[in-house]
Amino acid sequence: MSKYIYYGANQYAAEHFERFSKKYEPLCFCDRSASGDAMFCGLPVFPPSAMFDRYPDAPVLITRNIRVIVETQFYLIEELGVPKDRIVNFEPYIEVATCEPLETRLMVGVNHAGVCCSDFGKNRTPDVYFPDKSSPNEKVEAITALRKRIKTALANGEPCECAGCVALCTRRVSVEPKPLCLVEFDFQHSCNVKCIYCDVWDNKTKELDVPALRAILAGMEQAGLIDDATALHFTRGEIATFTQRAELLFAARDFPCVIFSNCTIYDDTVAKHLELGKTTINCSIDAGTRNTRDLREN
Ligand SMILES: C[S@@+](CC[C@H](N)C(=O)[O-])C[C@H]1O[C@@H](n2cnc3c(N)ncnc32)[C@H](O)[C@@H]1O
Ligand code: SF4
Ligand code: SF4
């Protein structure tokens, strides 16, 4: 029976190694960043050139994140000359007009969801406001319907919010929908500083219904819109001054998170969340410079 070259020696491969190896007996890893005599999950890791010299006919299993299988298979075929039928998990794909936000991310609040965070030229983000008293499932259905409507319109060249946006390009995307890479939480909190370019510092802070947000996340997970590798971003306000930060971070504990903060205040809750090991903090050093901020009275 054939042994397989695992393409992609990274955290995703390590996390799923047992599942992969039950079905496809591994020969070695291959990774374009490999050098020297590296070992990974008990196997040698070769750079692509060495892999082809050593095993010119072995089948290849892509062990990179399911979100990047299509890009990886075309790297293997077009850059490295691997025949398509050597890739055991080659995914059917389509070429469509789309954009990076539409394929990978979503902005979610308790009452509203939107696709991209900015206005690009004349375009505004496709978004949806959930009707009052919508259940979590109805909110998830509204999100799914929004994304489907935009993707269908773009595929058919029909008018929609995205028509003519500078961010549109032709991409190869998997026929099988993939979970989002990131969800940005709209926690609508004001900030202790006032950067001149910022449009969220004077958010009108309202009490956040954290259980409702958690229920939307659970519904999105059930619908396959997100999974445990989807990163949650806290970026629409300043978390260090947000009084419900402990509750919000607790609700996000199962996901890898990225906390965006001006880091002007040390916060123990945030520090403890970082200790869980899944979360990183992005310190916006631009927010702390004299040119870009004024300190305000809290
Ligand atoms: C809106 S802030 C909120 C989180 C936190 N207060 C901070 O500054 O990191 C998140 C990020 O958005 C960036 N940002 C703010 N206003 C922006 C704008 N108009 N265009 C692009 N990025 C912006 C900030 O530099 C920061 O890195
Ligand atoms: S095409 Fe433009 S407006 Fe539409 S989702 Fe993408 S970035 Fe936003
Ligand atoms: S620190 Fe962040 S939220 Fe505050 S004003 Fe600056 S960019 Fe906006």
What does this structure look like?
It contains 9 helices and 14 strands. The protein has 2 domains: 4-91, Rossmann fold (3-Layer(aba) Sandwich), CATH 3.40.50; 98-288, no CATH class. The strands form 3 sheets. It has a 7-stranded mixed sheet with strand order 9-8-7-11-12-13-14. Strands 3-4-2-1-5 form a 5-stranded mixed sheet. The chain is an alpha/beta fold. Helix content is 28%, strand content 19%. It has helices at residues 11-15, 17-23, 48-54, 69-79, 100-104, 136-155, 210-222, 245-251, 268-275, and strands spanning 4-7, 26-30, 39-40, 43-46, 60-62, 93-98, 105-108, 112-114, 127-129, 169-174, 182-185, 231-234, 257-261, 280-283. Helix 6 crosses helix 7 (210-222). The model has no long low-confidence stretch (mean pLDDT 91). Residues 191, 193-195, 198, 200-201, 238, 262, 284, 287 line the site of one iron/sulfur cluster.
C-alpha termini separation: 68 Å
Total separate domains: 2
Q: Which geometry do the CA atoms define? A: globular
Number of helix segments? 9
Q: Helix fraction?
A: 25-40%
Element order: H for helix, E for strand: EHHEEEHEHEHEEEHEEHEHEHE
Give me the side-by-side strand order of the main sheet. 9-8-7-11-12-13-14
Please give the number of β-strands.
Answer: 14
Radius of gyration from the alpha-carbon trace, in angstroms: 22 Å
What oligomerization state is this entry in?
single chain
- pLDDT < 50 runs, ≥5 residues: none
Distinct ligands, ions and cofactors found in the model: S-adenosylmethionine, iron/sulfur cluster
Beta content comes to 15-25%
